[in-house]
Design a protein that fits this description.
- The structure is a single chain.
- With about 250 residues, the protein is mainly beta.
- It has two domains: about 45 residues, no CATH class; about 200 residues, Fumarylacetoacetase-like, C-terminal domain (Fumarylacetoacetate hydrolase, domain 2), CATH 3.90.850.
- The protein has three helices and 18 strands.
- The strands form four sheets. Strands 1, 2, 3, 4, 5, 6, 7, 10, 11, 14 and 17 form an eleven-stranded mixed sheet that branches. Strands 16-15-18 form a three-stranded antiparallel sheet, with no helix packed on it. The chain has a two-stranded parallel ribbon with strand order 8-13.
């Protein structure tokens, strides 16, 4: 099932379900984390993020070629950091280049598969049971200010990835039943129509199930938690010459 959130005619957030025909209908929430389609067809003018995350976990250098393009060795365990919920925006909302990025271009794109934890909290889950707790998947852009990432937080990445608008998500969430294998997905970025990243989730160093098991060890993943699973190679910072986002650019993940 494809589920989205949009602004309805009353200016309120509402849910929609995509039918196989390609049309969208209004969704009725019958209980928490369960929606049913109605017979009211809609035309969406503006999508919202498919979920309002309670926490955003993120993973660094989870694709071998991405680690190598940064000149890094492969991590022995997942590299974890978090992004604030205040960084979340939806489709076609502008990414704001921060005034704090005042020493030249540094704002970069990173396409990522985003994992959405469903109605049951997750703690100390085994790898073979981890996917049972996934409600669905969507796409995200882990926007990063590279100088701030490297120098703005004493080598801790959160600061450079936490500015407002630095976490575009969605717009559509696909339920886990329709993606039985999250390691069988293409992930791509286009900048002004040009293909910049062209990866595949089979290339992850740590699979989705391994990430959930690792993060949940002695740590509760609440319903509505989102995990960004890392980006493939092709980021702007690693290009020669580097390619950073500029006002007026259009980036699609």
């Amino acid at each position: 099932m494809r589920i989205g959130r949009y602004v309805n005619g009353s200016g309120r957030a509402a849910s929609a379900i995509g039918l196989d025909s390609g049309t969208w209908v209004e969704a009725r929430q019958v209980e928490p984390w369960r929606w049913e389609p109605t017979d009211r067809q809609i035309e969406v003018q503006r999508w919202l993020p498919p979920i309002e995350p309670v926490d955003i976990w993120a993973v660094g250098k989870n694709y071998a070629e991405h680690a190598r393009e940064f000149g890094s060795s492969l991590p022995e365990n997942p590299i974890l950091f978090m992004k604030p919920t205040s960084s979340v925006i939806g489709e076609q909302e502008p990414i704001i280049i921060p005034a704090a990025c005042d020493r030249g271009p540094e704002v970069d794109y990173e396409v990522e598969l985003a994992v959405i934890i469903g109605p049951n909290p997750v703690r100390d889950i085994s790898e073979d049971q981890a996917l049972n707790y996934v409600f669905g998947y969507t796409v995200a852009n882990d926007i990063t200010a590279r100088r701030w990432q490297k120098h703005g937080g004493a080598e801790q990445w959160v600061r450079g990835k936490s500015f407002d608008t630095f976490c575009p998500i969605g717009p559509i969430m696909v339920t886990a039943a329709d993606i039985p294998d999250p390691q069988a997905l293409a992930v791509r970025t286009r900048l002004n129509g040009n293909l910049m990243q062209d990866g595949h989730t089979s290339e992850m160093i740590f699979s989705v199930s391994k990430l959930i098991a690792f993060i949940s060890r002695d740590t509760t993943l609440k319903p509505g938690s989102v995990i960004l699973t890392g980006t493939p190679s092709g980021v702007g910072f690693a290009r020669k010459p580097p390619v950073f986002l500029s006002p007026g650019d259009e980036v699609e993940v």
